[in-house]
């Protein structure tokens, strides 16, 4: 059995250079692969593992190691001539495609496609696709975001994350929210079951049979959910749900309730009730920060697993399905573990604000 190769010896300057090359979006992909492989070799990773992670052969990894040991980085950017297929487009054309992708849009459209880019620069659409794939460019995808403008953002963030990471003794931490206007949708024709070679089917059109609102409170420590379906989304229903929580949580425990800034949560009648129930402590998330409330993840699972493909002929049918999912979940709950510190989140938010300001200043905000 071949002995594992020792960690590749390199200077701090060489390592820094390789890290820069490994992140490049303009170098030939082979050079990026080689930089990544050498960095892994410097960490003492076995050649076979490097080959798997970089997607080359073990023989190639050994050759790269030997060349680095002999020549260092003196000729790193020069690709040795081989007998393989030669590139069909030059580096200047690749750079042009990358630059257009990052800094422009086709006339009258919001983003480039492989076909429109290929027509613009005079190459095949498959070549464009390979160039984008090698550099992780995905013009057809877009992520949504919104930075909170809450003047008390940092204060609220630290408060909520503190409850997740260091919950108080003799207390239960609950993440609470409402999923309003859940529709009971009945399909216009019967669905067909799944069978070998064919997915299950359902009609694209539907009949609306009414709505319900689900009030839910997820216990952070256990993952259990207290849930209640009510007809509307007013402060009266919120008070009913607070009473439900009060009945379900042992009397000797304090209740730290994480929720959003919806007006019903701050209604005068709610405030009056809370004054008579001092074990309730409300913690409000910053505006536009629903991602900070763990019950939102549970709502997403409920939608994916019980609602989106459901057929409900009435609101009672819908409520029954929600309650069935709730019972099944609570039979085998799993806590949703929060790991991010408030400091790390604030750093990302700060970077996001800087990037947003730069985009606005440069005229790319649209």
Mean pLDDT: 85
Shape: extended
For this structure, the CATH topology of the largest domain is Nucleotidyltransferase, domain 5
| Content-based structural category | alpha/beta
Radius of gyration: 28 Å
Number of domains: 3
Q: Say which CATH homologous superfamily of the largest domain is assigned.
A: Ribonuclease H-like superfamily/Ribonuclease H
Please state the second-level CATH architecture of the largest domain. Answer: 2-Layer Sandwich
Report the CATH C-level class of the largest domain.
Answer: Alpha Beta
What is the succession of H and E elements?
A: HHHHHHHHEEEHEHEHHH
Q: Quote the distance from N terminus to C terminus.
A: 60 Å
Multimeric organization: single chain
Give an overview of the whole structure.
There is one protein chain. By secondary structure, the chain is of the alpha/beta class. It folds into three domains: 86 residues, no CATH class; 45 residues; 179 residues, 2-Layer Sandwich (Nucleotidyltransferase, domain 5), CATH 3.30.420.10. 45% of the residues lie in helices and 13% in strands. It contains 13 helices and five strands. Helix 10 links the parallel strand 4 and strand 5. The termini are far apart.
């Amino acid at each position: 059995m071949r002995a594992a190769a020792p960690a590749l010896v390199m200077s701090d300057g060489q390592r820094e250079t390789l890290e820069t090359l490994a992140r490049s979006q303009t170098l030939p992909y082979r050079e990026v692969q080689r930089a990544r492989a050498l960095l892994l070799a410097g960490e003492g990773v076995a050649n076979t593992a490097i080959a798997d992670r970089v997607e080359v052969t073990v023989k190639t990894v050994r050759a790269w190691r030997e060349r680095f040991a002999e020549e260092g980085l003196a000729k790193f950017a020069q690709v040795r001539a081989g007998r393989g297929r030669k590139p069909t487009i030059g580096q200047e054309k690749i750079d042009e495609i990358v630059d257009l992708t990052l800094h422009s849009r086709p006339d009258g459209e919001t983003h480039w496609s492989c076909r429109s880019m290929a027509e613009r620069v005079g190459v095949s659409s498959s070549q464009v696709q390979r160039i984008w794939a090698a550099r992780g460019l995905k013009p057809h995808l877009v992520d949504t975001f919104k930075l909170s403008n809450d003047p008390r953002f940092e204060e609220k963030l630290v408060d909520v994350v503190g409850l997740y990471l260091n919950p108080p003794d003799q207390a239960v931490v609950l993440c609470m929210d409402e999923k309003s206007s859940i529709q009971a949708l009945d399909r216009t024709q019967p669905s067909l079951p799944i069978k070998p070679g064919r997915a299950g089917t359902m009609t694209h059109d539907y009949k609306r049979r009414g709505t319900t609102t689900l009030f839910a409170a997820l216990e952070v420590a256990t993952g259990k959910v207290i849930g209640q379906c009510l007809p509307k989304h007013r402060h009266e229903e919120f008070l009913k749900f607070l009473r439900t929580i009060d009945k379900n949580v042992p009397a000797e425990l304090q209740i730290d309730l994480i929720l959003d800034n919806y007006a019903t949560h701050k209604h005068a009648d709610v405030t009056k009730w809370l004054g008579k129930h001092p074990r309730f402590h409300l913690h409000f998330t910053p505006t536009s920060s629903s991602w900070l409330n763990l019950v939102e993840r549970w709502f997403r699972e409920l939608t994916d697993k019980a609602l989106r493909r459901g057929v409900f002929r009435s609101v009672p049918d819908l409520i029954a399905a929600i309650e069935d999912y709730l019972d099944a979940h609570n039979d085998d709950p799993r806590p949703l573990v929060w790991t991010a510190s408030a400091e790390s989140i604030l750093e990302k938010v700060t970077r996001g604000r800087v990037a947003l300001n730069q985009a606005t200043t440069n005229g790319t905000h649209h």
